[in-house]
């Protein structure tokens, strides 16, 4: 699948139903948003601006997403909402007060982040050189709140996200295409990177099996039953 920016002309612009962001229709519900995303990502070419606009237009409704919003007091959680026919992963991230991610890349995927509740702060970074031993300093800092949807990929740089509030949680909706299970995580003081596996705290509203009892077999059965 090829993903391109809006300023790259599409080969078949006249026949392409998902090419003009000004034509996006507001999805009436999370379910409708997901249906639209399925249609868009079934195409060979996907327009980043179109997806970003569609996600921006969705009006966050807690009643629709609260079953996915499984949080943890100690760190942010990743909760799988939809597997996008293998083309994308859609997930809800719950950020407790002052929770944040480390500086990370996105495994050559496209990453859309929409705020559903609260606010998040994003620090953007350039990739450090392979031999770096110096502290990484953000090149920009942004704050987002609903209905905003932002976008990043590895060509645009690295980022970390945090919930800047010490009193309110935050919830974000992330779409990654293609889906990934591993990314690079960076040590801010040195710029050194290491591979980091990313896992789900819950899938489709059910807490993911983990710990001693979370054997592969159980995980497999869980996947088959859900
Ligand atoms: N990309 C991060 C969340 S964020 O900090 O953008 C993740 O998937 O866990
Ligand atoms: Fe990220």
Automatic annotation (TrEMBL):
Which major enzyme category is it? Answer: oxidoreductase
A UniProt-annotated Pfam family? CDO_I
Q: Which residues bind Fe cation?
A: 104, 106, 159
Give the catalysed reaction(s), semicolon-separated. L-cysteine + O2 = 3-sulfino-L-alanine + H(+)
| One of the GO BP terms on file | L-cysteine catabolic process
| Cross-link 3'-(S-cysteinyl)-tyrosine (Cys-Tyr), where in sequence | 111-176
Question: Which pathway does the record list?
Answer: Organosulfur biosynthesis; taurine biosynthesis; hypotaurine from L-cysteine: step 1/2
Entry cofactor note text?
Binds 1 Fe cation per subunit.
Keyword annotations for this protein, in alphabetical order, are:
Dioxygenase, Iron, Metal-binding, Oxidoreductase, Thioether bond
GO molecular function list: cysteine dioxygenase activity; ferrous iron binding
Map out region (Disordered) in residue numbers.
1-23
| E.C. designation(s) | 1.13.11.20
Q: Which cofactor does it need?
A: Fe cation
Q: Which family does it belong to?
A: Belongs to the cysteine dioxygenase family.
Q: What protein name applies here?
A: Cysteine dioxygenase
Source organism: Lottia gigantea
């Amino acid at each position: 699948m090829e993903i391109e920016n809006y300023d790259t002309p599409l080969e078949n612009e006249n026949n392409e139903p998902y090419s003009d962001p000004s034509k996006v229709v507001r999805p009436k519900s999370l379910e409708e948003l997901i249906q639209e995303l399925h249609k868009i990502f079934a195409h060979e070419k996907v327009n980043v601006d179109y997806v970003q606009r569609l996600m921006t237009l969705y009006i966050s409704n807690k009643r629709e997403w609260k079953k996915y919003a499984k949080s943890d007091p100690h760190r942010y959680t990743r909760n799988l909402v939809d597997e996008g026919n293998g083309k994308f992963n859609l997930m809800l991230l719950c950020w407790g007060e002052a929770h944040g991610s480390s500086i990370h890349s996105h495994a050559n995927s496209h990453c859309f982040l929409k705020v559903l509740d609260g606010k998040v702060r994003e620090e953007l970074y350039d990739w450090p050189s392979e031999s770096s031993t110096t502290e990484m300093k953000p090149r920009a800092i942004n704050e987002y709140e609903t209905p905003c949807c932002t976008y990043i990929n590895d060509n645009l740089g690295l980022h970390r996200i945090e919930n800047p509030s010490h009193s309110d949680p935050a919830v974000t909706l992330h779409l990654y295409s293609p889906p990934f299970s591993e990314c690079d995580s960076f040590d801010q003081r040195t710029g050194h990177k290491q591979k980091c596996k990313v896992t789900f705290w819950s899938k489709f509203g059910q807490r993911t099996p983990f710990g001693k009892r979370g054997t592969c077999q159980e995980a497999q059965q869980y996947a088959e039953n859900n």
